Amino acid sequence: MITSKDVIRKLEEIAPKKLAEKWDNVGLQIGSREKRVNKILLALDVTLDVVQEAIDNEVDMIVSHHPIFFSPIKSVDYDSYRGQLIKNIIKNDIIVYTAHTNLDSSNRGVSDALIEELDIKPTGILSKVYKEKLYKLVVFVPETHEEALRGVLGGVGAGSIGNYSNCSFTSKGTGRFKPEDGADPYIGSIDEIEKVQEVKIEVIVSEDKLNKVVEEMISAHPYEEVAYDIIRLENTFSEYGTGRVGYVEKTTLGELAKYIKRKLNTPDIRVYGELDESVERVAVSGGEGSDFIKDAKRANVDVYITGDIKHHMAQIATELGVNIIDAGHFYTEKIVMKKLAKYFEGEFSKDIEVLISEKDNIAKYYSL
Fold this sequence. Notes:
The protein is α/β, with parallel strands linked by helices. The chain contains twelve helices and 13 strands. The protein has helices spanning 4-14, 48-56, 81-91, 101-105, 110-117, 146-155, 210-220, 253-264, 293-298, 311-320, 329-333, 336-348, and strands at residues 27-30, 39-43, 61-64, 95-98, 121-142, 169-177, 194-206, 228-252, 270-272, 278-288, 303-307, 323-326, 353-356. Helix 10 (311-320) links the parallel strand 11 (303-307) and strand 12. The mean pLDDT is 92.
């Protein structure tokens, strides 16, 4: 049985809450972590149309990108749009969970979905927001328990390197120890030197998971006293941030804009710069990207691809010499839903049905 807690745990593995901006409100919005989940609906926004879609499809949980609540609410007025929305969600026992700026900064989130969709070759992060310390955990275990312990370590997040999980290294050797009076040895006898064929398992562990990994390792280990080392890796960090920098095949600003319009299926697109200018080095940031124009300048890109660029910010970009392709907030973010759907389907196989909302985007408009 899969519960909402299981879904949340898997989502927070790729979009941990620590990556969210301080002003943001990510996590569980409405509902219980213990509810059984058979069907998930993915949406950028939780609107009345999206909730009705969830009801019609007997969805147990909505995973959204934008929060319902950015600040505390003082009342739930059923005659208001927001009040009716909350009422319908609770009445139909639907879980709502949000991954917003933490999904923006995730190494498997909005920015990566955008560069994959646009066939951009990534070279780095546009705006770094978090640098996480890494440690190497080394533990010695008898050969009989090697695979079981390795499974426990991987199950709590040890051995995650980039887009790879359960990474480890093993070497074999002989362990020696003498149980003293008062010991209760798993192997060996009191006051006698014991030799055991053991393996040394080495895994990388991020700082936020270290205590939990050690706790689970000790609990699963057969020995009364577990021999292990924790080594801080001064030269290795996991970096997270908003946006990506990369390269496209050399083209013109105008041709790149047409390509993006077609790939993202956006009804209109705005270009700030000379259409015949040659471009190759690009930066991207899904959603509203005004805050990262100066980062794009520092990255020395030919063009910055994002959404929701207002007039005065476009003027600043022009003064800085940064070309901009504004493909819209919705259209530069919605492509992450396909990535999330694929991720959940891979993690839960056929245990959960994953739907991508067809009623998303409250702000309907037409390009005439």
